[in-house]
């Protein structure tokens, strides 16, 4: 295994332990390092007038539940593999309806679980589409692309290194766009941006997929519209339309009783993947609702989802 500080040394110019725009609130977790995605300045920020807000939604515990709104400094928080490294780097993209980024429940807790099982993990705090970025609805996707390239750069020279991307809810929509729209461009920053952006596999957990119809997630659609997407072009932001045989293998996880993002979202994505001949699996649990993460599945079948993801990741050779 590489020295845990190797990424920091490689990215010395971008290393940061706190977000200066977040009122001094620490952003790094124990065992993690926080890396700024755009050290030379976030592209397309000329008309952004918001400030980052970090909120603890469960101040009385017992588990932390922090969310970030109006992200102005996109970050990666790294969790290094514990035990025997398995060669897989997992980029984790939390949800939040494109209004916020749910850092603990879907981000840090997930990273900790997979790091215990030998994965190198990175949690993405990404820009939100309606905050005035020139890239608009593409800004969060550009952040994920940049993050994946930085992670790939860090593992250069590592034999048999593999890369996966996992997204939850609106983060699932972000990831689905990343794997189906690999040609989305952003201004080149450095040599990392010359690296491939296609991951070896993707995982979509109760993902927002549809942007039209009764099964669309109205909150996410509202943010896309606020980002400047014309109502008559919303369909273009539905990932199933952009699936191709080059889309990486994809695993989908959903609950049939999800009233926020109906299971039809995952069904539509799986149908498109299957039709394109992309290796894919869909696991639909009877119960679980929406946003269960790791903490909301005790005593129900959906508790098996992280083990399913681990098995899937190891099978993608």
Order of helices and strands: HEEEEEEHEHEHEHEHEH
Percent of residues in helices comes to: 10-25%
DSSP helical segment count: 7
Rg from Cα:
18 Å
Number of E strands:
11
Helix/strand structural class: alpha/beta
Which sequence of strands runs across the widest sheet?
1-4-7-5-8-9-10-11
Binned strand content: 15-25%
Termini gap = 20 Å
Mean pLDDT: 90
**What best-fitting shape do the alpha-carbon axes yield?**
globular
Low-confidence stretches: 1-28
Keywords:
317 residues, 3-stranded antiparallel beta sheet, disordered N terminus, 7 helices, 18% strand, 8-stranded mixed beta sheet
What's this model, at a glance?
The chain is α/β, with parallel strands linked by helices and 317 residues long. The protein contains 7 helices and 11 strands. Helix 6 links the parallel strand 10 and strand 11.
Question: What do these coordinates show?
Answer:
- The chain is α/β, with parallel strands linked by helices and 317 residues long.
- Helices cover 24% and strands 18% of the residues.
- It has helices at 6-10, 104-115, 139-154, 170-180, 218-226, 264-275, 305-315; strands spanning 32-36, 53-56, 66-69, 75-79, 88-93, 100-102, 120-125, 162-168, 201-205, 250-255, 280-285.
- Strands 1-4-7-5-8-9-10-11 form an 8-stranded mixed beta sheet, with helices on both faces. The chain has a 3-stranded antiparallel beta sheet with strand order 2-3-6.
- Strand 9 (201-205), helix 5 and strand 10 (250-255) form a beta-alpha-beta unit.
- Helix 3 crosses helix 4 (170-180).
- Mean pLDDT is 90; it is low at 1-28.
């Amino acid at each position: 295994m590489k020295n845990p500080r190797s990424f920091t040394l490689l990215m010395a110019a971008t290393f940061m332990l706190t977000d200066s725009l977040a009122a001094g609130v620490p952003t790094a977790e124990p065992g993690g390092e926080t890396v700024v995605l755009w050290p030379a300045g976030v592209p397309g920020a000329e008309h952004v007038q918001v400030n980052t807000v970090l909120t603890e939604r469960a101040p009385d515990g017992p588990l932390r539940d922090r969310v970030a709104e109006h992200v102005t400094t996109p970050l990666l928080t790294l969790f290094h593999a514990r035990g025997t490294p398995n060669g897989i780097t997992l980029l984790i993209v939390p949800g939040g309806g494109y209004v916020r980024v749910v850092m603990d429940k879907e981000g840090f807790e997930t990273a900790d679980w997979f790091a215990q099982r030998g994965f190198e993990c990175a949690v993405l705090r990404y820009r939100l589409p309606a905050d005035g970025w020139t890239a608009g609805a593409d800004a969060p996707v550009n952040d994920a692309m940049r993050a994946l390239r930085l992670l790939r750069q860090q593992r250069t020279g590592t034999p048999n290194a593999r890369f996966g991307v996992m997204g939850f809810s609106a983060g699932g929509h972000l990831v689905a766009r990343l794997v189906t729209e690999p040609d989305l461009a952003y201004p080149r920053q450095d040599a990392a941006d010359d690296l491939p952006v296609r991951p070896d596999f993707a995982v979509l957990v109760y993902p927002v997929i549809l942007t039209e119809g009764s099964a669309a997630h109205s909150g996410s659609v509202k943010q896309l519209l606020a980002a400047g997407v014309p109502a008559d072009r919303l369909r273009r932001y539905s990932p199933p339309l952009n699936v191709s045989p080059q889309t990486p293998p994809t695993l989908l996880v959903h609950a049939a009783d999800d009233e926020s993002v109906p299971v039809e979202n995952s069904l539509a994505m799986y149908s498109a993947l299957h039709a394109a001949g992309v290796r894919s699996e869909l696991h639909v649990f009877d119960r679980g609702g929406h946003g269960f993460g790791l903490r909301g599945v005790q005593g129900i079948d959906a508790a098996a989802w992280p083990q399913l993801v681990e098995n899937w990741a190891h099978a993608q050779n």
